[in-house]
Design goal:
Blueprint: H1 3-23, H2 25-41, E1 59-71, E2 74-84, E3 91-92, E4 95-100, E5 104-107, E6 113-122, H3 123-131, H4 133-151, E7 155-164, E8 197-199, H5 204-217, H6 221-227, E9 230-232, E10 246-248, E11 252-253, E12 256-257, E13 273-275, E14 295-300, E15 303-309, E16 320-323, E17 327-331, E18 336-340, E19 351-355, E20 360-366
Parallel strand pairs: 2-6
Antiparallel strand pairs: 1-2, 1-7, 3-4, 4-6, 4-8, 5-6, 9-10, 11-19, 12-13, 13-16, 14-15, 15-20, 16-17, 17-18, 19-20
InterPro entries: PIH1/Kintoun_subfamily, PIH1_N
Protein name: PIH1 N-terminal domain-containing protein
Organism: Powellomyces hirtus
């Protein structure tokens, strides 16, 4: 065999091994171990296959398969949730850093096309997800949210499949952790990964406050004009009158309206508060099944807070939030969330604010041990 043919076959072989390692490091190690054992059994002291492949800068840990918005003829989307030590900061304050790759296209073995993306976090974040199921769930939702936001698509969580230690599609990064389809200077050896989205799995409120403060000083003319919009102030006492105060800013507050009568004592009167919206409670069973949004609860300074992320919802008028004595129901055209209110929270004093820039709804209730600290408008 000619030398160039040997080199070509060797290059092809190593590409296959590299692809195997990228998709499943465990499978790669098992395969190489078997080859090494066979070589040693034949008396080969220094077998070629004993040399392990160079570690990938970006390694797949979880692979999500979702249906969603049709892109270039395919509504099948894969998200590789990956780990890398090339990300300089795992978190910025309490915000998990997520690096999103460019969108790629590939095909299944039967020729079916699909879209694939990488959402990369620091290795320490993956370690935490492996140790805490709750954090893993939030991390996967965070990855989906980042992909939805970055590529302006909607993904269906219902029927989503999750596999571990897999990487779907062709490998999308070079040896320095740079996206392969991004033009870079070949002499530049630095990591050129761009942080597309910094979100949080621990405190949406902190991110809102930090980026909201930045918005006050930096923004386009359109952003400045939006700040001057007059937004209604929330009033939530019994039989709430029309709001008379006005508030400026990026926060949209939902109007308080009288409770919807259901004919039962359990859900009538002041035990139930409903917020106005371009959506009726009777619409809940209309249309496709609604998916559960990412949400979290926190306590601070005598206030219990529920925050939920609603991608694609651009106005508070498109949200229906119903507060009962022991639960909260949030309803939009695409999402439905039911959350329990703790026993010491005062639902009648709840405030509801929507941050359209971040697509986050915040519902805050003072607790009975500190009911004087009701969040101000």
């Amino acid at each position: 065999m000619a030398a160039n043919e040997v080199a070509e076959q060797a290059s092809h072989m190593w590409k296959q091994l590299d692809a195997m390692y990228a998709k499943s490091p465990d499978e790669y190690r098992d395969f190489m171990s078997k080859l090494n054992d066979e070589a040693e059994s034949q008396g080969i002291v220094n077998p070629l296959f004993s040399t392990t492949a160079k570690p990938r800068p970006v390694r797949g840990k979880y692979c999500l398969r979702c249906a969603g918005t049709k892109v270039k003829g395919s509504n099948v989307h894969y998200i590789n949730v990956c780990e890398s030590t090339n990300i300089k900061k795992a978190r910025v304050e309490d915000r998990v850093t997520v690096v999103v790759s460019k969108a790629r296209r590939d095909k299944e073995e039967d020729g079916t096309p699909y879209n694939v993306y990488d959402a990369v976090v620091h290795t320490s974040i993956i370690t935490q997800a492996l140790q805490t199921p709750h954090f893993k769930r939030d991390l996967l939702e965070l990855a989906i949210g980042c992909i939805e936001e970055s590529f302006k698509i909607s993904l269906n969580r219902t029927g989503m499949k999750v596999t571990t230690d897999t990487y779907k599609g062709g490998y999308g990064w070079d040896a320095y952790g740079r996206a392969l389809d991004v033009a870079v200077n070949p002499d530049d050896k630095s990591v050129a990964a761009e942080t597309i989205s910094k979100m949080t799995t621990t405190s949406l409120l902190t991110r809102i406050q930090a980026e909201g403060d930045e918005e006050k000083t930096v923004g386009s003319k359109e952003d400045s004009a939006r700040k001057e919009e007059q937004l209604p102030n929330l009033i939530m006492p019994t039989n709430a009158p029309p709001p008379t105060q006005q508030k400026k800013g990026l926060i949209q507050e939902l109007d308080g309206v009288p409770a919807r009568k259901t004919g039962t004592a359990q859900h009538s009167g002041l035990k139930q508060k409903q917020l106005s919206a371009n959506l009726d409670r009777n619409d809940e069973d209309v249309g496709p099944p609604r998916r559960q949004p990412q949400s979290e609860t926190t306590r601070k300074d005598g206030v219990w807070v529920l925050e939920t992320r609603l991608p694609g919802v651009n106005s508070a008028a498109d949200i229906l939030a119903e507060l009962a004595i022991s639960s909260i129901t949030v309803l939009t055209r695409e999402f439905r969330l039911v959350a329990n209110i703790p026993g010491d929270a005062i639902a009648d004093a709840a405030t509801c604010r929507y941050y359209p820039k971040f697509h986050v709804l915040q519902i805050a209730c003072p607790t009975r041990d500190n009911n004087s600290q009701i969040p101000s408008a």
